[in-house]
Write a structure and sequence with these properties.
Blueprint (H helix, E strand, L loop, with lengths): L2 H22 L1 H8 L15 H20 L7 E3 L4 E3 L5 E3 L6 H11 L4 H12 L7 H4 L10 E9 L1 H6 L19 E8 L5 E13 L6 E11 L2 E4 L1 H7 L2 H16 L4 E3 L5 H11 L3 E3 L3 H9 L5 E4 L6 H13 L3 E3 L1 H6 L32 E4 L2 H14 L2 H5 L1
Parallel strand pairs: 1-4, 9-10, 9-11
Antiparallel strand pairs: 2-3, 4-5, 5-6, 6-7, 7-8, 11-13, 12-13
Helix pairs in contact: 1-2, 1-3, 1-5, 4-5, 10-14, 11-12
This protein binds D-MYO-inositol-1,4-bisphosphate (2IP) and calcium ion.
Length: 399
């Protein structure tokens, strides 16, 4: 199997521990909560705590990968920068130090001398984590390191991370908001072609033990390289009995005659929502988090994740894209899908990860500017698109 993927899974688990610690340990949670007080924001510390958690997770991923695979660290890209300036005008570069004590020192500079918080964070950052997955161990595949680039979203759905509740009820397995919508996303792509090759989605908050209040998470992965396609869901599927599978096959045939289901952003346009309700009936679900919505497609909770705006970025989609590819699906550019002629039988306009948007600046260089559509089955996608086109108002399809 790819050692790189194995290491990514391990560091994603370490990252999940940091994310959980910031919500569960009282000293750290208080700092997150302070984000709510608008006036105080940024005044106390060199950086708001939410950003610190984000940057710390990103640095843990970067530096753990660099230690194991020298040269890979500088190919890891994300939204956050690890440089801050504190109240005294000191420039601080947040790096993991080689000892826990040194990390405490560095963190307390950013946290204005808050020793308790710095110690709690440094402890979890330096904790050793083991992670294994039998499906992964069963295959041997080597991908040359020099072609790889990596997109990281250290904490997707930061709003839910800070303000999200622990007791939201799901609707048909889908959480509209809450801590379950938080994900850590790591997507590996081919720097020459832009094709996603490996992906890890770590969901740190899946279920909470009501006695200890501790959260358990879950991790999903996929690899698609030169004809080898494997993913974490294979294990779940092959574990089931034949009888269960037969029942499922029968129901999935029946399902095809049902309307397709979709998950959407709460900020989706009204015109798209109206067309969708004609296509999907009541099988439309709103949910927070771009990573979480694509995870719903991976998990088979919905058939499609559709988004018509340009406010997701390469780090939001790369991980899920790799997993969906390993499952036989993908993530395509929505605008191009709606403009293309399906009759040509041409390949779908898959999102790519290696080139920036021409003429754009700042984060917009890496925006998925035509929107996106994520799917598990190409056949379902084609059916969905043709129904959507029929149901969109003419003015919409022309623009
Ligand atoms: C966000 C986050 C949002 C999402 C947005 C992402 O990333 O996933 O939830 O919007 O597109 O960029 P929506 O939930 O409406 O889909 P982050 O939380 O990392 O800023
Ligand atoms: Ca994000």
């Amino acid at each position: 199997m790819s050692d790189i993927l194995r290491e990514l899974l391990r560091v994603s688990e370490k990252a999940a521990n940091i994310a959980r610690a910031c919500r569960q340990q009282e000293t750290l949670f208080q700092l997150l909560i302070e984000e709510k007080k608008e006036g105080e924001k940024n005044k106390k510390f060199a950086v708001d705590f939410k950003t610190l958690a984000d940057v710390l997770v990103q640095e843990v991923i970067k530096q753990n990968m660099e230690n194991k695979f020298p040269g890979l660290g500088k190919k890891i890209f994300g939204e956050e920068s690890n440089e801050f300036t504190n109240d005294l005008g000191e420039k601080i570069t947040l790096r993991l130090c080689s000892t826990e004590e040194e990390t405490v020192e560095l963190l307390s500079k950013v946290l204005n001398g808050n020793k308790l918080a710095s110690e709690a964070l440094a402890k979890v950052v330096h904790q050793d984590v083991a992670f294994t997955d039998p499906t992964l161990d069963s295959i041997e595949i080597n991908i040359p390191q020099d072609i790889l680039g990596i997109w990281v979203d250290p904490i997707d759905s930061t709003y839910q991370y800070i303000k999200g509740s622990a007791d939201i009820k799901s609707i048909q397995g889908i959480f509209p908001c809450g801590l379950q919508c938080v994900t850590i996303l790591i997507g590996v792509y081919d720097m020459q072609t832009g094709v996603p090759l490996m992906g890890v989605i770590n969901q740190p908050f899946v279920s909470q033990d009501l006695n200890t209040l501790r959260w358990k998470g879950q991790c999903y992965w996929g690899l698609s390289y030169m004809g080898t396609n494997i993913h974490s869901r294979q294990l779940t599927i092959s574990k089931r009995t034949v009888k269960e599978t037969q029942t499922e096959n029968a129901s999935s045939e029946a399902e095809f005659s049902h309307p397709l289901s979709a998950v959407i952003s709460t900020s989706e346009k009204e015109s798209i929502k109206a067309a969708l309700s004609r296509v999907c009936g009541d099988r439309i679900f709103g949910a927070a988090g771009a990573g979480y919505k694509s995870l719903c497609v991976v998990q088979g909770l919905v058939d499609i994740y559709i988004f018509s705006e340009d406010t997701t970025f390469k780090w939001d989609s790369c991980a899920a894209h790799a997993i969906l590819r390993a499952m036989g699906g993908g993530i395509a550019d929505l605008k191009e899908c709606l403009e293309r002629n399906p009759e040509t039988g041409l390949d779908l306009p898959q999102l790519v990860y290696h080139v920036e948007n021409e003429g754009a600046t700042g984060v917009d260089r890496w925006a998925n500017k035509g929107g996106l559509i994520a799917y598990r089955s190409r056949k379902q996608l084609e059916t969905f698109l043709s129904l959507l086109l029929q149901n969109l108002a003419p003015v919409q399809t022309q623009s």
